[in-house]
């Protein structure tokens, strides 16, 4: 009999949460990850589902996600503990046939519930499904240290943040040519910040929450993690450069254009024109 702890999506979540903890991105219960699954992913493990799955209503209907399963991190759970006890810290949920709530099929034991940012995740999933034709499956939120630091010293606009990150590391323009969206500071865990984040996710795979953290989207856990990791590495370089007195030279606009042409990506035009 197959064991759900050996399922690719459970093993993937264990690795992603452990790696994020080791990076220093997810202190205490900070951060959350959700990944959209297919019915075929979870069917082999039905024997391990809860006998009486708990049902939790969503704060607003999301019919676009009806009958969709997800693997999610738990509210108040520490990423560093997922590897020690996956069933207590993560879970598989499935949205009902009307999109008004979801059942907890596996995990999230001892009355645990999904992340408090679930509404933000689900709203962004809906947008990324439409934007990428269903390609994107992962939404990852974490407190990447240097990206947060930059929001205190750079102008908090998409074009400025994007351009500086592109200049901070050559690969950035290739990895996120669509740039980085940014919100005003908002109270987390609300439908309002979820709606605002989803609005930015129509244009960007990365969205910064100033003084708080970052949201990343991707087709796989590796892609979403790698997207944030790339931006965070550039942010670390920028923090050091700013601390050393600022840039004396950098990648030019023409060089950024040449980089986009070489790798077949179209950079965000407004960030190029700064």
Automatic annotation (TrEMBL):
It is found in: Cytoplasm. GO terms for cellular component: cytosol. Binds 1 zinc ion per subunit. Pathway: Carbohydrate degradation; L-rhamnose degradation; glycerone phosphate from L-rhamnose: step 3/3. Zn(2+) binds at residues 141, 143, 212. Its EC number is 4.1.2.19. Its cofactor is Zn(2+). GO terms for molecular function: metal ion binding; rhamnulose-1-phosphate aldolase activity. GO terms for biological process: pentose catabolic process; rhamnose catabolic process. It catalyses: L-rhamnulose 1-phosphate = (S)-lactaldehyde + dihydroxyacetone phosphate. Keywords: Cytoplasm, Lyase, Metal-binding, Rhamnose metabolism, Zinc. It comes from the Bacteria. Catalyzes the reversible cleavage of L-rhamnulose-1-phosphate to dihydroxyacetone phosphate (DHAP) and L-lactaldehyde. Belongs to the aldolase class II family. RhaD subfamily. PANTHER family: FUCULOSE PHOSPHATE ALDOLASE (PTHR22789), RHAMNULOSE-1-PHOSPHATE ALDOLASE (PTHR22789:SF16). This is Rhamnulose-1-phosphate aldolase. It comes from Buttiauxella agrestis ATCC 33320.
